[in-house]
Automatic annotation (TrEMBL):
GO MF entry, a single one: P-type transmembrane transporter activity
Name assigned to this protein: Uncharacterized protein
Transmembrane residue ranges: 17-37, 49-68
Coarse class of the protein's main subcellular location: membrane
Keyword Transmembrane: yes
InterPro entries assigned: ATPase_P-typ_TM_dom_sf (IPR023298), P-type_TPase_V (IPR006544)
GO cellular component: membrane
């Protein structure tokens, strides 16, 4: 059967399968490539993204299972030819979803180098407030150590430079005052 590229869209099994599989693949790509902790919130903590991913997956599986025939008709999704075909399509979608995400997580856990101070224990997943408190304590200890050492950090250098600039400005003001009084 030949199709006119300029003709009206007619839903068929090929279009339906391509739409459902590509949508699940796009959702899987978002879920798998989401960086998560320590660079961003974990995906479970990012409620909007998590809910969007779950809703899109639910819609795709509901369309494949033909749970809402009126919705499928509205979306121009054709009925799948057989129960076996439907089961194979759903198995493909589930496999794509779980294998991709699992593979990405495994690669991240084995190949990514993260400073030990930023790694959350695998079994003990603390909330963000606890992690923030621990980091603040660590940073405060570092600040106290530097202050005890004579404040040799970046802030000390900035303070010294600003003091030097103030002295230079005062000297310039004094010399300008002497020059104007001599005239």
């Amino acid at each position: 059967e030949t199709r006119d590229p300029e003709g009206k869209f007619k839903p068929n099994v090929v279009n339906t399968v391509v739409f459902l599989v590509s949508t699940v693949q796009q959702v899987t790509t978002f879920a798998a490539n989401y960086a998560g902790y320590p660079f961003m919130q974990a995906i479970g903590e990012n409620k909007k993204l998590y809910r969007t991913i779950m809703i899109l997956c639910g819609i795709c599986f509901a369309c494949a299972l033909n749970w809402f025939p009126e919705f499928n008709e509205y979306m121009q999704i054709s009925e799948l030819p057989s129960e076996e075909f439907r089961n194979n399509l759903i198995a493909l979608m589930i496999a794509d979803l779980f294998i991709s995400i699992t593979w990405e997580r495994l690669c991240r856990s084995f190949l990514r180098k993260v400073p030990h101070s930023l790694v959350r224990p695998i079994l003990d997943y603390p909330n963000e407030k606890l992690v923030t408190e621990i980091r603040k304590k660590h940073i405060n200890k570092k600040i106290e150590e530097r202050q005890k050492q004579g404040d040799t950090g970046l802030w000390a250098q900035i303070k010294k430079q600003s003091q030097m600039i103030q002295k230079i400005q005062q000297e310039q003001a004094q010399t300008q005052g002497h020059l104007s009084s001599k005239r």
